[in-house]
Amino acid sequence: MRHLTLSSRAAILLMLLAAVAPRTQAASIDFLAEINAIRSQGCAGRPGARPALRRAAQLDRVAEALAAGRRLADALKDAGYIAVQSTALEASGSDAGITRELARRGCEDIVDPAYRELGIATRKDRAWFVLAMPLVPPAASDAEDIGRRVLDLVNEARASPRRCGWKRFDAAPPLAPSELLQRAALEHARDMAGRGSLSHAGGDGGTHAERATRAGYQWRVVGENIAAGQPTAEQVVAGWLKSAGHCANLMDPEFSEMGVAYAVAPQGDKGIYWAQVFGAPRP
Asked: What is the pTM of this model?
């Protein structure tokens, strides 16, 4: 079964070269203010966006690492910054020239409303900028409400015919919540979070079928979806629906019950792990 990885934009490095005289000292203008002015006013025919970006010390460290030649993904991991979406821009030239090039060639990222935070590093006539949307995982106290929301979204999806990859599914009956399957899902979500590993195999090598049995679920058929990095019910269900294998599980008419759980990771670059267990009990 294919694994679902964090549904974020791939990090890119945009080389912005301004045909201006090089600087001989550190930045003398407030690049945060300049970028937020571009973001507010819009650029290159694109409308402005809000809220304004806020400066983040962790992203400053990421930008400094980029200036030292590190890759964005590695720099984010080293800084302990977990991003749902991130990108990097690099520019050279004078302060004013860099600002113009950001408005011209970095516009698409600067006005992207998904981004919330900014990191900046400067070296003489060059500057590095990191834009990111930080992962803000839900609180454990929200688990019951989020579980109900996932079930609602799944049943909304099952209510209409859909194609999962090459296979077409008719509308399927709604799933009922199962406390036992939720218990199996929570066990695996916590296990993945504790290990920082997205895998259908448990830390003990166990399968989803074994976990369902261990939870006391007497199943006729059982299946599992997993995911990592999505902070909301809407995002995790949307990700499953975009993946042919996960979508097929979600639409399978053989399943009649479901349990879902998430766990926040103490380390690693995903931040949150999800497990969704489907089943139909033995008669």
From this structure: 0.73
SS (H, E, C) the chain: CCCCCCCCCCCCEEEEECCCCCCCCCCCCCHHHHHHHHHHHCECCECCCCCCCEECHHHHHHHHHHHCCCCHHHHHHHHCCCEEEEEEEEEECCHHHHHHHHHHHCHHHHCCCCCCEEEEEEECCEEEEEEEEECCCCCHHHHHHHHHHHHHHHHHHHCCCEEECCEEECCCCCCEECHHHHHHHHHHHHHHHHHCCCCCCCCCCCCHHHHHHHCCCCEEEEEEEEEECCCCHHHHHHHHHHCHHHHHHHHCCCCCEEEEEEEECCCCCCCEEEEEEEEEECC
pLDDT digits (tens, 9 = 90+) for 200-240: 999 999 999 999 999 999 999 999 999 998 999 999 999 99
pLDDT band at 268 (very low <50, low <70, confident <90, very high): low
Token couple for 274: 């999800």
The contacts of residue 233 (CB under 8 Å, 6+ apart) are 146, 149, 150, 153
